[in-house]
Design goal:
Elements: H1 5-11, H2 19-30, E1 33-34, H3 40-45, H4 51-64, H5 81-87, E2 91-92, E3 105-109, E4 112-116, E5 120-124, E6 129-138, E7 141-151, E8 181-183, E9 190-199, E10 202-209, E11 213-221, E12 224-231, E13 234-243, E14 246-254, E15 258-268, E16 272-281, E17 302-311, E18 317-328, E19 339-353, E20 356-370, E21 380-394, E22 400-413, E23 416-430, E24 436-447, E25 454-459, E26 465-470, E27 473-485, E28 489-496, E29 501-508
Parallel strand pairs: 1-2
Antiparallel strand pairs: 3-4, 3-29, 4-5, 5-6, 6-7, 7-8, 7-9, 9-10, 10-11, 11-12, 12-13, 13-14, 14-15, 15-16, 16-17, 17-18, 18-19, 19-20, 20-21, 21-22, 22-23, 23-24, 24-27, 25-26, 27-28, 28-29
Length: 509
C-alpha cells in the first residue's frame, strides 16, 4: 500500500489513525471507484471529498450527464487541481466498477498477525484478538457485520467510533460522515452482530453487541436524509439536506438532557467555501461513546459557535481560517467556575506545482483555568497558547522527496511563560528501477513543559499509524524501508534509534 504524499500534505494536521479508512483506500486503488455509478455513500467512503464537493459532482452529472473523462472534473465547481490529484489514484469514469471484488491480505509482523479481505478480518496480538465477517451491498443487505465492528450515528452525539476530523486546517471537514456500521479488529469497539437493510429510499439498522444495542431508521434521498437513532438509553434525530450551494445538517439527541448540533456549509462559486457550526451540549447529557465536534472530546457541558472560510481565488494559493468561541456552563477539569474561551486559526498554502508545497499556519487559543496558587479555592486565571508552524515539501529530483517542518509553541499563565521548539526533517528515496523505498526521519524537540508539547505523526510500517506526544528535550531518528515485489508481496522494516525494531511481511491477492 502506497499512500500518496498529497494525502499526507492535505491531512498532516489531522492524522487519520483509522485503519479501516486506509484499507478502504487500498481497495479503491486496486479497483477504482466509478464516478459515473457511485452514489453519495460511496463517494463519502473515499474520505477525501467534502460534502460540498460531492453535492457539486452530483449536480454536474444531473445537468450534463455522465463524465466522459477524468479531466472533465476540472469543470466541476469545487474540484481544484489539488483535489483532483488527491483522488486520482482511486477513481475512474469507466461504467463498470470493480470495487466489489474481494481483496485478501495476509500480514505478519513481529507483534501482530492479521488476515484481511473485503469480508473477513482477523487480528491476533500478544494480549488481545479481534475478528469480523462483513458483507456490503448484497441484494437488500447494505451492510452486515458479525464479530467486531464500529457504530457511527448522526453527528456523533449518540455514538461515533470511526475517524472524524475536528477543528483543523480542513475548514469545511466539520461534518461527520460514514456508514453506521463498519468492520473493525479493535477489541475496544463492539463485539456482536449488526445489519443494515435497504428498501427503496428506506434504510433500517439493527445492532446487538456485548457493549451496546440499538438501531436506526433513515429515509435517504440523493441529496438529503433524515434518520432516527437509538442506542442504549440515548435517542435522537439527525438530518442533512442540500439546497443549491448550501448544505444544512444537524442532530438532536436526548438522554437525561439534550444536546444539539446545527451546521451549514456553503460554496461561493470558485471564490470561497464557508462553514458554520453551532453546538449546545448540556451539562447533564451523557453518552459513553459519543464524539462530536467541539472543544472537549465529549459532547457535554459546552456551548459554542464555529465559523470558517476557505479562500482559493488566486491560482496556487489557498487561505484557510476559522474562529471558534465557546462557553462551559459548569465546572470541568482545572476550573472552579463556569468559563469562556476562544480560538483563532489561519493557514496559508502555496502549491506552485505537483512536487512543491509551502505551508504556514498560526493558531491562538485563550481559555480560563484555576490558578496554581495555594488558595483553598484557586481563582480563575487566563491562559494563552500560540502555535506557529512552517512546512516545506518538494521533490528536487526524480525519486526524491524532501520534507521540512519547523514549529514553535508558547504558553502563558500565572506562573510565567513556557516556550517550545521542534525541527523535523524527512527524506524519501525511491530507487530507480528497484522496488525499494527508503525513508529517513530526524526529529529534534525542546519544550519548557507539557503545556508546550508537540504532536507529530509517527509513521511506521503498513497499517501502523501513531501520534507521538513530545515534551522535554530530545531527538528521534528512524529509518523505514519498503520492498514491494510486483502486486502481491511487500516487506517492511523500521529501525528507530533507542526504540523498537519492526519487521513486517504482507501478501495480497
Amino acid at each position: 500500500m502506497c499512500i500518496p504524499l498529497s494525502i499526507y500534505a492535505r491531512q498532516e494536521d489531522d492524522i487519520v489513525n483509522d485503519d479501516m479508512q486506509w484499507q478502504q483506500l487500498e481497495v479503491y486503488r486496486k479497483h477504482p471507484l466509478s464516478l459515473n455509478n457511485a452514489d453519495v455513500a460511496q463517494l463519502t467512503s473515499l474520505g477525501l471529498l467534502t460534502t460540498l464537493q460531492i453535492d457539486e459532482l452530483i449536480n454536474y452529472k444531473k445537468q450534463f450527464g455522465k463524465l466522459l473523462s477524468i479531466y472533465e472534473l476540472q469543470a466541476v465547481p469545487g474540484f481544484d487541481e489539488a483535489t483532483i490529484q488527491l483522488i486520482l489514484p482511486y477513481i475512474t469514469v469507466a461504467e463498470s466498477s470493480q470495487t466489489d471484488k474481494s481483496s485478501m491480505t495476509c500480514l505478519v509482523r513481529n507483534d501482530l498477525l492479521r488476515y484481511r479481505s473485503s469480508t473477513i478480518g482477523i487480528q491476533v496480538k500478544k494480549d488481545s484478538y479481534g475478528a469480523y465477517y462483513f458483507i456490503k451491498n448484497y441484494k437488500k443487505i447494505k451492510a452486515l457485520a458479525i464479530g467486531d465492528f464500529t457504530i457511527n450515528m448522526g453527528q456523533g452525539l449518540i455514538n461515533w467510533q470511526a475517524y472524524a476530523p475536528g477543528k483543523s486546517s480542513l475548514i469545511t471537514h466539520i461534518k461527520r460522515e460514514g456508514e453506521i456500521i463498519r468492520p473493525s479488529t479493535s477489541v475496544t469497539d463492539n463485539r456482536g452482530a449488526a445489519i443494515t437493510l435497504q428498501q427503496g429510499h428506506w434504510e433500517t439498522t439493527a445492532i446487538l453487541s456485548l457493549q451496546q444495542h440499538g438501531g436506526n431508521i433513515s429515509y435517504v434521498l440523493p441529496q438529503a436524509h433524515v434518520g432516527i437513532n437509538w442506542l442504549n438509553h440515548n435517542i435522537g434525530m439527525d438530518y442533512a439536506i442540500s439546497l443549491r450551494n448550501y448544505h444544512l445538517f444537524g442532530e438532536l439527541a436526548i438522554n437525561h438532557s439534550t444536546s444539539t448540533i446545527l451546521g451549514m456549509l456553503a460554496s461561493v462559486g470558485k471564490i470561497a467555501d464557508l462553514a458554520l457550526f453551532y453546538r449546545k451540549y448540556n451539562t447533564a447529557y451523557q453518552s459513553i461513546h459519543a464524539s462530536a465536534m467541539g472543544e472537549n472530546s465529549n459532547p457535554v457541558n459546552e456551548e459554542g459557535l464555529y465559523t470558517g472560510i476557505s479562500i482559493h481565488t488566486i491560482k496556487h494559493w489557498q487561505l484557510d481560517a476559522y474562529a471558534d468561541i465557546f462557553h462551559f456552563p459548569w465546572l470541568q477539569y482545572k476550573t472552579t467556575a463556569s468559563a469562556d474561551g476562544q480560538e483563532l486559526f489561519a493557514s496559508l498554502t502555496y502549491t506552485p506545482d505537483k512536487e512543491t508545497r509551502l505551508f504556514f499556519r498560526y493558531q491562538y487559543k485563550q481559555k480560563y483555568q484555576q490558578s496554581k496558587g495555594d488558595a483553598f479555592i484557586p481563582p480563575m486565571i487566563q491562559t494563552r497558547h500560540e502555535n506557529y508552524r512552517f512546512q516545506l515539501s518538494l521533490s528536487p529530483a526524480k525519486g526524491w522527496t524532501w520534507k521540512t517542518r519547523i514549529e514553535a509553541n508558547t504558553w502563558q499563565d500565572d506562573s510565567g511563560n513556557q516556550y517550545g521548539g521542534l525541527y523535523q526533517q524527512e527524506m524519501i528515496w525511491q530507487l530507480p528501477q528497484w522496488p525499494l523505498r527508503c525513508t529517513l526521519n530526524y526529529t529534534w524537540y525542546s519544550t519548557g513543559g507539557t503545556a508546550t508539547r508537540f504532536y507529530i505523526p509517527d509513521r511506521s510500517v503498513l497499517y501502523d499509524f501513531n501520534l507521538s506526544q513530545l515534551y522535554g528535550k530530545g531527538a528521534k531518528q528512524s529509518c523505514t524501508i519498503r520492498w514491494k515485489q510486483k502486486k502481491h508481496w511487500q516487506a517492511w522494516a523500521r529501525i528507530e534509534i533507542k526504540g523498537p525494531v519492526t519487521i513486517q511481511v504482507v501478501y495480497t491477492v
